[in-house]
Specification:
There is one protein chain. The chain is an alpha+beta fold. It folds into four domains: 159 residues, OB fold (Dihydrolipoamide Acetyltransferase, E2P) (Beta Barrel); 78 residues, RNA polymerase II/Efflux pump adaptor protein, barrel-sandwich hybrid domain (OB fold (Dihydrolipoamide Acetyltransferase, E2P), Beta Barrel); 62 residues, Dihydrolipoamide Transferase (Irregular); 219 residues, Chloramphenicol acetyltransferase-like domain (Chloramphenicol Acetyltransferase, 2-Layer Sandwich), CATH 3.30.559. A hairpin with a 6-residue loop joins strand 19 and strand 20. It has 15 helices and 28 strands. It starts with a strand and ends in a 7-residue tail after the last helix. Helix content is 30%, strand content 25%. Strands 18, 21, 24, 25, 26, 27 and 28 form a seven-stranded mixed beta sheet that branches. It has a five-stranded mixed beta sheet with strand order 3-6-8-1-17. The chain is elongated. The longest helix is centred in the N-terminal third of the chain and has 21 residues.
Length: 557
């Protein structure tokens, strides 16, 4: 057993990087490359990996500390050093011992414990393989550019000047050459990623310059001698600059697995479980993905409880926000109706290509007739709103434009034309939006429709609608009435292929060829499924609807 310190590696010149998270504690067993802590500078966050396997004896820093290169992080008790004692001493150590004439058993043990560190230091000065990160060079712009091609892959041997990746801006394409010969250890980007100057691209293992070898060999003190003078407990296990920076990148760089803010252990777990890290919401500091997040994602997926937003069409999830950090809040559970409506709307929006067409219907004469029938409506014990006229006009337009009264099958291979006209009517209730369906609208009179509109609206507000009264719709009308607005884009209620949005009517001047006349105009918004309905179909439907509402006598035919 031997004790060794792990220190902060070269972190690209960042001074005073803050410790934002500790990933290990005293007593933990750690593996090689396991994350120890997360540092954050004014430019980036990075996870510092362990260069040793063993047991953590002591954590030398705490969250909030500001660290620089060389600062000790943890003390680790390793087992690997025990094997080193039984092996023949490296030549450099043996030569030093002979020259100094020292051979006591106790000193030999000390030398054996220090030798691995000495060897590491010697390797960095004598031209043996070392690691370097190739970054995006000066590309003449501060804007992000796209990685359009990866010219190498892990394991490839490259020569100095060989192309590593191809970048493309809105003006030109450029190749990034290798600054040295060596072996590609890891690609730090994927095709399609957006990068800027200074972002890491490739991790290379190369050989140091020859002049460094000469300088090392001609120096007064040998690496072994320098190592002997250092106390055993303060021996330093150096790690390459780029290994730390490459292990963790902020999620804002892209949704690719390599660039998600997560450590090596988390990435390994995700690969083993087949989890796309881009779909996992991180719960750690700065939205860092933890092992618990991956495990929770898998549990939800197996139980069928993964939110639609996490998986729908491969879209990334919306991160949680702690709104209490900005002021007082109150969290209220959503009603079942709210959640059901949201799921239906999201499914429709993701699967249906929406187009919305706008028009104004001149309902001056319709309103005059409706108001003249107010007395008769009271005698009948009902209310004559604009809705029955809208229903009747839509029924006629649906009959004459059968594509709007159709649905596409789930496989997209066929259209189902319906020989009935059932129209949904969106009703705003205290618990959410409900859509009762009025059946056989084309066969009912204005008075029958008026009665049914009042009855179903009351049932909806009192939550007394039966499931059968909300099913089987061919088309939907969503009327804002006097709530307000000049227009909106309603979402198609799939598997229907069309929906009519009705906004607030207003009196406006309309040119009649000789003068402006005050006319009551009703804004209409017709949204439709572009897989079934094209612009010509929608134009004919909308034109007929405007004509019918402008002269209700046409509803008789």
């Amino acid at each position: 057993m031997a004790k060794q310190q792990i220190t902060v590696p070269d972190i690209g010149g960042a001074e005073g990087a803050e410790v934002i998270e500790l990933l290990v504690a005293a007593g933990d067993q750690i593996e090689l490359e396991q994350g120890l802590l997360v540092l954050e500078s004014d430019k980036a966050s990075m996870e510092i990996p362990s260069t040793l396997a063993g047991k953590v004896l002591q954590v030398l820093v705490k969250v909030g500390d500001e660290l620089s290169e060389g600062h000790p992080i943890v003390v680790v008790e390793t087992e690997a050093e025990a094997d080193a004692e039984a092996e023949p001493e490296p030549e450099s150590s043996a030569d030093t011992a002979e020259s100094e004439g020292e051979s006591p058993a106790g000193e030999a043990v000390q030398d054996a414990e220090v030798e691995p560190v000495a060897a590491d230091q010697a390797s960095s000065d004598s031209g043996v393989p070392s690691e370097v990160t190739v970054e995006v060079p000066d590309i003449g712009t501060d804007d992000a550019v796209d990685v359009i091609e990866l010219c190498v892959k892990p394991g490839d041997e490259v020569a100095e000047g060989d192309s590593l990746v191809v970048l493309e801006s809105d003006k030109a394409s450029m190749e990034v050459p290798s600054p040295r010969a060596g072996k590609v250890i890891r690609m730090l980007v994927k095709e399609g990623a957006a990068v800027r100057e200074g972002d890491p691209l490739v991790l290379l293992e190369g050989v140091g310059a020859q002049d460094e070898q000469v300088e090392a060999s001609s120096g007064g003190d040998t690496p072994a001698a320098s190592a002997e003078s250092a106390p055993v407990d303060e021996s330093v296990a150096q790690t390459p600059a780029t290994a730390a920076a490459a292990t963790s990148q902020p999620a804002s760089r892209g949704s690719e697995d390599t660039l998600v803010y997560a450590g090596p252990a988390v990435r390994k777990l995700a690969r083993e479980l087949g989890v796309d890290l881009a779909k996992v919401t991180g719960s750690g500091p700065r939205e860092r993905v933890l092992k618990e997040d991956v495990q929770g994602f898998v549990q939800r997926a197996l139980s069928g409880k993964v939110p639609a937003a996490a998986t729908g069409a491969g879209l990334p999830t919306v991160p949680d926000v702690d709104f209490s950090a900005f002021g007082a809040i109150e969290t209220v559970p959503r009603t079942k109706l709210d959640k059901l409506t949201a799921a239906n709307m999201q499914r429709s929006w993701l699967n249906v290509p929406h187009v919305t067409q706008f028009d104004d219907a001149d309902i001056t004469d319709l309103e005059a007739f409706r108001k003249s029938m107010k007395g008769e409506a009271e005698q009948r014990g009902t209310r004559l709103t604009p809705m029955p006229f809208l229903l009747k006009a839509c029924a006629t337009a649906l009959r004459d434009n059968p594509k709007f009264n159709a649905s596409v099958t789930a496989d997209g291979e066929n259209l189902v034309y319906k020989h009935y006209v059932h129209i949904g009517m969106a009703v705003d209730t205290p618990v959410g939006l409900m859509v009762p369906v009025i059946r056989d609208v084309d066969r009912k009179s204005i008075w029958e429709l008026a009665d049914e509109v009042v009855e179903l609206a009351e049932k909806a507000r009192e939550r007394k609608l039966k499931p059968a009264e909300m099913q089987g719709g061919c088309f939907t009308i969503s009327s804002l009435g006097n709530i307000g607005g000049n227009g909106f884009s309603p979402i198609v209620n799939t598997p229907e292929v069309g929906i009519l949005g009705v906004s607030r009517a207003a009196v406006k001047p309309v040119w009649d060829g000789q003068a402006f006349q005050p006319r009551t105009l009703l804004p209409l918004s017709l949204s439709y499924d572009h897989r079934v309905i094209n612009g010509g179909d929608a134009g004919r439907f909308c034109t007929q609807l405007v004509t019918l509402l402008g002269d209700i006598r046409r509803l008789l035919f």
